Request: fold
Amino acid sequence: MLKNYKPRAIETLAQNALKYYNEELVCGEPCEIPIEELIEFHFGIIVQYRNLSKNGAIHGITVFEDSIIPVYDTRSRRYEAVYAKAGTILIDSRLLTENKIKRLRFTLAHEIGHWMIHQDYYKEIDELASKTSSDSDIRTEREADSLGAALLMPYGRVKVAFCRLKPKLTKEATVAQMAQLFNVSNQAMEIRLKTIGLI
Reply:
């Protein structure tokens, strides 16, 4: 059965994960969270880059059980099956370009969000082919987005940065500066600030 996570529980999960890995990620100066490092070294998750679809529509897949995953081979222009072990996050390799780094970072955070809170749900699903996070429903996607945002933009650090910048800048400039500081998109930062009640 799918557990329903309240916003406070999601915040606590994110804070605990960051604190357990490196307490400075929660208590230190506001800055970019090393999300791929956190995923690989704290959670022991393997991150692999592949073309996940022909058109780039799928950004990431979390593998909960050993599975065969279809990926797109650009040379042969067709899909091929690859084996992925449980505890793997597959990221679309098109996100590795400089102008998509913020999307890449949020996708990584979103996928580790699935790993942290939806493992039991996916392990209950009968069909092996459905045991990846790309087959999620709206609620699981929203929860993974919320947890990903809380990991990339920890509450305490965001609040400190906001209090330092807000008196000096317009709302738009504050959002832009904070997005740059945390290496996330302006849209992600604005949503985060609204979610935690700062704007």
